[in-house]
Amino acid sequence: MPTTRITHGIFGRLGGVSPHPYESLNMSTSTGDSKQNVDTNIALAYNSLGIPIASLRTVTQVHGARTIATHTKQFRNNINADGLITKTPNTSLFMRFADCAPIMLYDPINHAIALGHAGWRGTLAGLASSIVATMKSTFGSKPDKLLAAIGPCITVNNYEVGQEVADLFHEAFEKTDDIIVYNNNSIRLDLIKANIHSLASSGVQSIETSNLCTSYNNNYFYSHRTEAKPSGRFGAVIYLP
User: Fold this and answer.
1) Residue-wise over 62-86: b if at least 16 C-beta within 10 A, else e?
2) Which CATH number does 7-155+206-240 carry?
3) What is the helix (H) or strand (E) element at residue 208, kind and residue range?
């Protein structure tokens, strides 16, 4: 995402204070780590980017397609949603991941940002399209001017799904030849291509991907599918100065 007007980062699992089995930069209490450890880890991440921790806005992620906007300091961080947008200066959007896809967007014309959490359920429900539509209706964003990036997530070679999930994607997507892959009696989901399709169908033309797999690179990223449970969650942040 080539711009100097925002700060953004996706963190791995190293460099934090959480003990086994969360070692070490775990950023979620959802699987049993202490709030003190998680708060320390988030502070370490924010300090590394020079972002004020008071700017943090987040949501309770529920694997859906709801996108909400944050405009004020009174924003409540426990709202159920998986997409978050803002054009309020000195605001950072923060979410947690362990195989699901981080989606970041920047509107260089209206100086607005977005962050999304897209697992298979959110992808199926249209989270990426929801973020674009909400930016358009809230800020007047033009989809073809948006800059989008999809961060590290589980990739197709390591993401086996059942026929029932494949059937849902066949119903929801017009073309699934490159989204649902049948190979050697297995069915695999390409989460990245599914979200690229959703973004492109919404009019987004500039889309970058990391192509890093959280399962294959489990030594660098948390992976819900690969690790013995419980696993931690890595963080993604995008900041509007």
Assistant:
1) ebbbbbbbbeeeebeeeeebbbbbb
2) 3.60.140.10
3) strand 206-209
Nearest to 222, CA basis, from 210, 208, 237, 212: 212
Quick: pLDDT tens for 25-63: 999 999 999 999 999 999 999 999 999 999 999 999 999
List the beta bridge partners of residue 197: none
Say what the pTM is.
0.96
Dihedral pair phi/psi, residue 186, rounded to 5°: -120, 155
Provide the 10 A C-beta neighbour count for residue 4. Answer: 5
Closest CA to 10 of 233, 161, 159, 241: 233
Mean per-residue pLDDT of the chain: 95
**pLDDT tens figures, 125-143:** 999 999 999 999 999 999 9
Q: Are 236 and 97 in contact (CB under 8 A)?
A: yes
Helical residues (DSSP H) of the chain, grouped into ranges: 35-49, 120-125, 127-139, 163-172, 191-201
Confidence of residue 72 (pLDDT cuts 50, 70, 90): low
Q: Which two tokens stand for residue 223?
A: 């992976």
Angle of helix 127-139 versus helix 191-201 axis, rounded to 10: 30
Residue 90 falls in which region: left (phi positive, over 0), alpha (psi -120 to 50) or beta: left
Which residues, at least 6 apart from 166, have a Cβ–Cβ distance to it below 8 Å?
176, 180, 187, 189
Strands (DSSP E) contained in 36-190 are 56-57, 67-69, 83-86, 91-97, 101-107, 112-118, 147-150, 180-183, 186-189
